[in-house]
Write a structure and sequence with these properties.
CATH architecture: Up-down Bundle
Number of domains: 1
Order of helices and strands: HHHH
Low-confidence stretches: none
CATH class: Mainly Alpha
Radius of gyration: 15 Å
Oligomer: single chain
Largest sheet: none
Number of strands: 0
Distance between the termini: 15 Å
Shape: elongated
Strand content: under 5%
CATH superfamily: 23S rRNA-intervening sequence
Mean pLDDT: 95
């Protein structure tokens, strides 16, 4: 990964997740689902960061796979928070758009890396 677009986007997304978590806890008084959302949403970038330092191509792919799974889980929590009126449509759609971009990038990197193995 010569370009750090994924690192930058996943870090920026983690910042959004932390801020959204604070909003959910302070404004909406939601403490359970928001904690799950916080954990999975910040884990994406952490696993992307770990993948960059992977000891092998297999390690790199494994960490990216975890980041992808965490992103999918985060998508679930955002949809649930929207469906239960903790996020409005605009908040949810904005987070989901960023998340979809991250999922597409991770997916492309996985395909390219596996093809070049």
């Amino acid at each position: 990964m010569k370009d750090n677009v994924l690192l930058d986007k996943s870090f920026a997304f983690a910042i959004r997740v932390v801020k959204a978590y604070k909003y959910l806890v302070e404004e909406k008084k939601e403490f359970v689902i928001s904690k799950q959302f916080l954990r999975s949403g910040t884990s994406i970038g952490a696993n992307v960061e770990e993948s960059v330092g992977g000891q092998s191509k297999a390690d790199f792919i494994a960490k990216l796979s975890i980041a992808y799974k965490e992103a999918r889980e985060t998508k679930y929590w955002i949809r649930l928070l929207r469906a239960t009126d903790y996020f409005d449509e605009t908040q949810a759609n904005s987070l989901l758009a960023d998340l979809e971009e991250i999922l597409k990038i991770i997916g492309k990197i996985q395909i390219t890396t596996k093809a070049n193995s």
